[in-house]
Design brief:
By secondary structure, the protein is α+β, with helices and mostly antiparallel strands. The chain has one domain: SMI1/KNR4-like (3-Layer(aba) Sandwich), CATH 3.40.1580.10. Helices cover 38% and strands 18% of the residues. It contains 6 helices and 9 strands. A 5-stranded antiparallel beta sheet has the order 3-5-6-7-9. Helix 3 packs parallel to helix 5. The two termini are 30 Å apart. The mean pLDDT is 89.
Length: 178
């Protein structure tokens, strides 16, 4: 019996295959992450990775981007764990806490332009990341999904968790092709 993560991956691949013949191959998916890789992620970032993120990564440990690689949803490439760590370290080093940009943040998030407890799991290639929030405000939910825009203070909650985010994206794609 398939778990929710496997079913979502199956739907992502089926959706893309309806549009492009070799879609699965064009995703450049990596073998599923193991427990040691997930533990390294948690230890390096100092967070607890939500269960749905772990199960999603156990199916495929992200994508390796090369020219011609398709996005898994929207315009996003899912980062392998090693790249999540690299991107997180980059954001930690590059973020200037004295930045004069004011955050435009909903009440579900703490009022930071960058929070070291965000896990940058996907990117669009332009310096923007899809993040999992493991440190929400009192009105937020651990595991909520948000966009981190590198040049804009808007931080928007996109979904309650990764599975809900993917469902939203699949619904958008379904409506687009109807």
């Amino acid at each position: 019996m398939m778990n929710k993560a496997e079913l979502l991956w199956q739907r992502i691949i089926e959706r893309g295959s309806n549009v492009e013949r070799n879609f699965k191959e064009s995703l450049n998916l990596q073998s599923g992450a193991n427990d040691d890789e997930l533990q390294l992620l948690e230890n390096t970032l100092g967070v607890t990775v939500p269960d749905e993120v772990k199960s999603f990564y156990k199916v495929y440990n992200g994508q390796v981007w090369n020219p011609g690689v398709n996005s898994f949803v929207r315009n996003l490439t899912l980062s392998p764990i090693s790249e999540i760590i690299d991107n997180w370290k980059f954001l930690e080093e590059e973020f200037d806490p004295d930045d004069d940009m004011e955050p435009d943040i909903g009440e579900e998030m703490k009022p930071f332009l960058w929070n070291s407890k965000w896990i940058p799991i996907a990117e669009n290639g332009g310096g923007d990341y899809l993040c999992i929030d493991t440190d929400p405000s009192e009105k937020g939910i651990v595991g909520q999904v948000l966009y981190y825009w590198h040049d804009w203070g808007n931080r928007s909650i996109e979904a309650r968790n990764l599975f809900d985010f993917i469902e939203i994206c699949l619904k958008e794609d379904y409506e687009e092709y109807q």
